[in-house]
Amino acid sequence: PAATLSFIEVLDQMRDSLKDNGYTQIPQLTSSKELDLNDKFDLVPDKFKGTRRAVMIGINYVGHNPGELAGCHNDVGNMKKYIMNVHGFDESNITVLMDDGQHTPPTKDAILAAYKEVVEASEPGDAIFLHYSGHGSKVADSSGDEADGYDEVLVPLDFQEVGMIADDDLYNLFIKKLPQGVHVVSLMDCCHSGTILDLPFVFQDDGDFGGAAPMMSLDQNFDWKKVLNGPLAEKIQGIL
User: Residues 92-104: pLDDT tens digits?
Assistant: First the structure.
């Protein structure tokens, strides 16, 4: 867009749009570091001059009853045009998974492979945009690292046969392996997705800040062993 918006302005507009369309979901931002919400939001900040890559997943669950969705393919199509026309992403560097009969189906293996490949291809100075539009859910925590007893999960097309993609899977495959100096923005348009990447700083834009300035806070339930058990602190400084 032509307008320059801050993080909080982007979140406010998302919240207002959801409300105007009859939805009750609250936009949530997580990050590897504490962000000033009044700073300018950039999908790709100016200092990242390298290759821009994207993984875009839209699952309508065609033929599933119940559970079929209607707008996820359109979401991916619109966002793909946006990142190409406004942010200079080259189509050759955009991986699209959709259950539309034209693209690679978004199975569990295909989704995990796409995330693995984009991490392995990226170098310092590059930028990654992740977009997922489909079902999200939560399942009983299998690793003991969730205070509420549940893992957040993405629901691949073949979930009935092979299961879900848990937040722990995404952390180990994507966050843990990401090279230092790569900038990432992830847009997860699904239920239970606010902490799907298991990052330590969080902000929920419910509009009720008690008169104080809106600001991110440290997730008191964050499992710091994930960072302390490996050299991750510097690696994930560029992730949003």
Answer: 999 999 999 999 9
**What φ, ψ does residue 51 adopt, rounded to 5°?**
-70, 140
Catalytic residue IDs: 135, 191
Span 36-59, pLDDT tens digits: 999 999 999 999 999 999 999 999
Alpha carbon dihedral 8, 137, 201, 19, in 10-degree steps, equals 20
CA dist., res. 145 & res. 133, Å (int): 26
Which sign does the torsion angle of CA 44, 169, 98, 11 carry? negative
Is there a cis peptide before residue 66, judged by omega within 30 degrees of 0?
yes
Name the one residue in this structure whose structure tokens are 């848990």. 166
Distance CA 4, CA 14 (A): 15
Reading the block at residue 224, the tokens are 């710091």
DSSP the chain: --S--BHHHHHHHHHHHHHHTT-----EEEESS---TTSBP-SS-TT--S-EEEEEEE---TT-TTT--SSHHHHHHHHHHHHHHHH---GGGEEEEESSSSSB---HHHHHHHHHHHHHH--TT-EEEEEEES-EEEEE-SSS--TTSEEEEE--TTHHHH--EEHHHHIIIIITTPPTT-EEEEEEESTT-TTTT--SEEEE--S--TTSPP--EE-TT--THHHHTTT-TTTTTTB-
